[in-house]
Amino acid sequence: MGAVKLAGLTKQTIDRKPGGIRASGMMPPITRRHKRNNPEYCEPAMTIDRPNLRIAALLVAMVLLFAGCASVNLESHVAENANEALDVAASETDRKEAHRYLLGAADRFQNRNQHRDARTLLQSSQFDGADEETANQLILLSMASATALEDARWARDIASEITPEHFLNYEQNLISRAAKLQADTYQLADDNLAAAVTLILLAEADPDADTQSVHDAIWQNLKETSDSELSDKEGRAIGYEAQGWLELAGILREPGTNLDEQGRMIRSWQNNWPDHPAAETPPAELQLIASLAETRPERITLAVPLSGPLASAGAAIRDGFFAAYYEDQSADREKISIQVVDTSDNDFPQLYEELANENQDLIVGPLEKDSLASLSDMDSLPVPVLGLNYLPADASVPSGLYQFGLSAEDEARQIADRMTAEGVKQVLVLIPAGDWGDRLEKALLERLNQNEGVALDIERYFREDNLRAVTADLLGINVSRDRAIEVERTAGINVEFEPRRRQDADGIVMVAEPTIARQFKPLFAFYFGGNLPVYSPSMVYEGNPDPSRDRDLNGVTFTDTPWILAEDNQFRSVVKEAMPDLKGQLGRLFAMGSDAWTLSKRLPLLRQVEGATIEGQTGDLTMTPEGSIHREQMWARFRNGTPERLPALEKSSGTEIQEVTEILPQE
To answer: Is the pLDDT of residue 4 over 80?
Structure first.
């Protein structure tokens, strides 16, 4: 303190002038006028008392010192950063005042969106030994910054210090905010059950809370709770409201229940729990499930190409659609009417107008991108359309249009996320030349950029290219060779040369069909890149185990549909027995047709309930607010020529769903 305060004192409280030093607030120095040395004039001799002089000097020094070391006014001091605030608080002898100052400074930092500065203060050891009131304020501010920063580790530390009832420690006007921050903190700490219980207690404690939004949040947290946690907690007596919620969540997890059965279960639960708050105000998702059976479309047109270049794709989608329809025990076949229309030779806007005049409830299709794009000129569609493709990114989306397909861009984004999760930040990329490759490259680079990754080099290739040369260029072998040649030319001597690949790459993205991929993978090892992890989309796998041919793909990590990778897929087993020739890409399109039937019944559910997900044959299906459906696929890695399933990635709360722009099949 001394050095800093003395520096301030010298600048602010000492006035240096010729003839002496004057401290602020003291009398000005006396001006002494000496008479001329005149022998006729004589003054009495002055007696100097040296001890008294030393005491006077000491007193002056003490006045100056205490003037410089006066305490900072904590109430008015505004720190510009965390370190300044910590220094000021450390100089305060009254620790309660110091704590109050630090809490106020953290609050100001939060209001200015300086949550990192707030975190530095709130995690400071200066709060050690704080009283209960200070500790509660510290927890409240900490939850606000932990959730703003999405700091999961900090959230887990906070969650370990509190119970779901903790928010009740605050005054009534803070209870709602504290409970919501607490629930968000539990979610960030991966304790969704505690988040749900917190919100259940909030619904009881705050009569002014928005009941519908609180119930929706409770339900979303219960959905994210594992079966084991739910069943363990369900058997305990934890209060009427919580017990009712847990029973509701449990009955809807029973395997094999279809939409109609779930609706009946919800209504039965309401009858058994008539006084429960959720019986009067069910979560919006459950309201939709209960009503979907009454509002599902009954007159459906499946519009797909059944002739021309896309005939096989259209036929596979058609077969998948009807297979799922006949497998669906909840479908009322006496009420539902499905007609199939070949779109290959039709003007789709005219066809749509004809179908709308026939009072159809839903049109599934078209598959052709141009046909779907023709609908973007309309502001709204009187008959909803579940398109089997995606509009261009810059096209307007009319009201009533939903978009679904096997998007290669979705797979590219999932590859980028997988690499990031596994610490692969700097990658080399192989992508086929052409428009399809352009779209995939764009999606990959955008997500890599979001994840703070980088593509060091991108090689675009044609099937007929020299793949050895393509691989050598990708791994920087040719650069190494050219450098050696230049040295020989400059030095005029022969140089022993051993080529080396570039050393800055963490992994490789290989977008290639199986016959090409089986050539690229051994070439990576030949050119000294065999230790680099390789990631691919689903096109790298033909869809049926072929160990003798796929041994060259050992180590390749790829994403694919549940239709291909799910081990216990009963639907696939039944279909494969009836249709043994259904393989590879046609199998994936068959799965897409199956999901189109499932989606036809649940489009309002995905559209209206945030976070709603459907487990489909092509992946976990979600929908953007614009009606674009995305898929989250499974993961596998080749071992001994056979794909082995990998665990799913943990979903990040900060990852946003991005818009898709295209679908396969490639034409």
So the answer is: no
H-run or E-run covering 381: strand 380-387
Which pLDDT tens digit goes with each residue over 470-498?
Answer: 999 999 886 545 554 554 555 555 545 45
Determine the Cα–Cα distance for residues 196 and 489; give it in Å rounded to an integer. Answer: 73
DSSP helix/strand/coil, 67: helix
CB 433 within 8 A of CB 412: no
Q: Estimate the crossing angle of helix 240-251 against helix 192-205, to 10 degrees.
A: 130
Q: What pLDDT is attached to residue 16? A: 35
Give backbone dihedrals phi and psi of 433, rounded to 5 degrees, phi first. Answer: -70, 155
Contacts of 366 (CB under 8 A, 6+ apart): 303, 304, 305, 343, 348, 372, 387, 388, 389
Q: Which of 172, 138, 173, 179 is nearest to 158 (CA)?
A: 138
Region of residue 257 (phi > 0: left; psi between -120 and 50: alpha; otherwise: beta): beta
For 383-411, give the secondary structure using H, E and C.
EEEEECCCCCCCCCCCEEEEECCECHHHH
Residue 34 has pLDDT above 70, yes or no: no
Rounded to an integer, what distance in angstroms lies between the CA atom of residue 538 and that of residue 643?
11
**Residue-by-residue DSSP string for 99-119:** HHHHHHHHHHHHHTT-HHHHH
List the single range of 43-47, 400-404, 436-440, 448-452 with lowest mean pLDDT. 43-47
pLDDT for 481: 53
Cβ pair 505, 427 in contact under 8 A: yes
508: number of Cβ within 10 Å = 24
Question: In percent, how much of the chain has pLDDT > 90?
Answer: 64
3-state secondary structure at position 509: strand
Contact 274, 282 (CB under 8 A): no
What separation in angstroms does the CA of 210 have from each of 176, 245, 273, 282, 476? 10, 18, 21, 13, 60
Residues in the chain: 667
Q: Which residues pair with 507 in a beta bridge?
A: 427
pLDDT in tens, 166-199: 999 999 999 999 999 999 999 999 999 999 999 9
DSSP string covering 555-609? TEEEEE-HHHH-TT-HHHHHHHHH-TT--HHHHHHHHHHHHHHHHHHHHHHHHHS
How is residue 292 written in tokens?
Answer: 């979907």
Nearby residues of 52 by Cβ (< 8 Å), 6 or more positions away: none
Q: What are phi and psi of 648, to 5 degrees?
A: -70, 155
Asked whether the whole model's pTM tops 0.70, one would answer no
pLDDT category of residue 17 using cuts at 50, 70 and 90:
very low
On whether the CB atoms of residues 245 and 214 are closer than 8 A, the answer is no
CA distance 413 to 409: 6
First to last CA, the chain: 76
For residue range 624-655, list pLDDT tens digits in order.
999 999 999 999 999 999 999 998 776 543 33
φ, ψ of residue 429 in degrees (nearest 5): -130, 135
pLDDT at res. 540: 97
Residue by residue, DSSP assigns 602-639 as: HHHHHHHSTT--EE-SSSEEEE-TTSBEEEE-EEEEEE
Average pLDDT, the chain: 84
Give the residue with greater pLDDT, 284 vs 43. Answer: 284
